[in-house]
Amino acid sequence: MSRFMRNAAAAALTLAAGVALAGTASAQSYSRLVVFGDSLSDNGNLFLFTGGTQPPAPFYYQGRFSTGPVFVELLGFNLGRFAAGDSNAGSINYAFGGARTDLAGAPPGMRTQLNAYLGGGGTFGPNDLVSVLGGANNIFQGLPAAGASSNPAGAIQVVSLAAAADINLIVNNVATAGAGTILVTNLPKLSLTPQFANSPAAPLADYAVTTFNGALLSGLNTVAANQPGSNIILMDLFKIGDTIAGNPTAFGVTNVTDPCFNQVALTLCSNPDDYFYLDGVHPTAAGHRAIASLANDYLYYGDRGAATAHQGEVSMRQREDSLDMGSEALSGWAAWEPGHTSLDVSLMGDRTDVDARGIVPEAEVEGQGIRLALEHSMSASWKMGVAGSYREAETIAGPTRFDSENFSFDAFLGWRSGPMFANVTAGASRDTYDDIQRATGVGPVVHTGETEGYSRGVRVQGGTWFDMGGIALSPRVALTWASTDVDGYIENGVAAQYAYEDRTVEGLTGEVSLRAEGGIEGVTFYVEGGYRDSLDDSSDPVGTGIAGSPSQVLYREVEDAMGGQMLAQVGAEVDWGPARVGLGLKGRFGDNADSFVGGITLRMPLQ
Q1: 59 pLDDT tier (thresholds 50, 70, 90)
Q2: 370 DSSP β-pair partners
Q3: CB neighbours of 355 closer than 8 A, spacing ≥ 6?
Q4: What is the DSSP secondary-structure string of 303-355?
Q5: Is the dihedral of CA 305, 309, 310, 315 positive or negative?
Q6: How do beta strands 181-185 and 128-133 pair?
Q7: pTM greater than 0.85 (yes/no)
Q8: What is the secondary structure of 20-38 as a DSSP string?
Q9: Can you state the angle between helices 110-119 and 152-176, rounded to 10 degrees?
């Protein structure tokens, strides 16, 4: 029994890298799951194989090396067990506790497991998910002889490299057979487990693991390059181990140093969910829930990464708002006074509520800013201006949040002849995205990041005025082109480290509106309504990969956040000595979002 415990333990050690509750599968989905591995993945195969003796009941849950279901059972599939002659059409688990990576027969090694699956008529399809996890049993069995040799590091290196070569061979064969996605898990730091924590063998064990992990990654990169039809995802258990050991309560457990099961006294602790380890290396159900949540963070990176679509969209809306303000200064009813120059100082606040769009979560955006504009009437027919503005916003989108800052400059030029007018505004901005945070769903693990970008745009507007006697009406049309580039970046964190591609959000919109203006005793008021719609959306899909993994970059198309928009604004200006003070509120009510911008403006004549 102790031999089986040590061998199977290896797989469980990978658990040390585990994390919190499994998340809910998103729109990215897999049709079924096929598992090859050892005790970390075994859902009762060894128990049946040994006639119910390994692992020993009742201390282990229903034949698992744990106090509950193992992590592959928590990924949303109904996993069958290995049985000769049974159908392999559905989700099935070929993992055996104690399994090495090789062609061993009892318990079946992982290469033997794959041969049995294929020999039994098993096939792989593009929507299949295959889990491959093993190598620790090779190291466990090789450590005693390596430690007793004259060159322990050299001896265990041979074992680790051979185990990694087996795993890479398995992955290559599975990919060649047509599997769409292969989740390959590396090994954790063994010195964090109860079995090795205070053992003189810990340094050699950790060396064996790092050697294995390095060879595994190198080999997987080669396999991925030669097998573009399969997405090979490396789940990094090694990286997260220290985080769990350093803050276990944040992951829902209080003890990561002691085993719950006393293998000498054959007694089980009364509170196994407070322990990360059931025995020297195998995790409890709590540990497996942690592993499952980590696996989900890796498996659904394409969908989860789509939340970053909000970054470019926030800057795009701000660019459009800046262009709108340029037109606003050149399309009023009042005549232009030749030689008149004024300075406008505006304070503004904004809020946008964006609906969920498939895999892109809903978002709330709140911001504020300041704008300085200098306007000069060159004649009764020509007027120009320049403006600089600063805006900041906080965006909360499901598990993701970020702060953004926008420094922009706009120039605008207008013409009018009698009641007719036309104007053009062009501008650009530098955008920064700071304090980006993504809650991974892996216990308390939050990934962070920062990036920057650049926005530009042009708006052309034309219309005319009709004097209705005290009230003037102006029908008008406009075209707006705006584009935002967001630089790619890599998250910082110990779960699946998403690597985002550069992205451009770009579109051309057309609008029609009707404005009414009036005034009495130094007070001017206006009301405007209209409709804006997209004429062309050239936005890039969101591209997400995983740093340090051979996984592919997955692209997700994102529906335009605003879509068709009803436009409405209202405002008033009042004389204040030689200056004027204005208040205004503008709303955009889109297919997928509602946006509001309100502000106060002080207009001061300079000449």
Answers
A1: confident
A2: 347, 390
A3: 362, 592, 593
A4: HHGGGGHHHHHHHHHHHHHHHHHHHHTTS-SSPP-TT-EEEEEEEEEEEEEE-
A5: positive
A6: parallel
A7: yes
A8: SPPPPP-SS--SEEEEEES
A9: 20
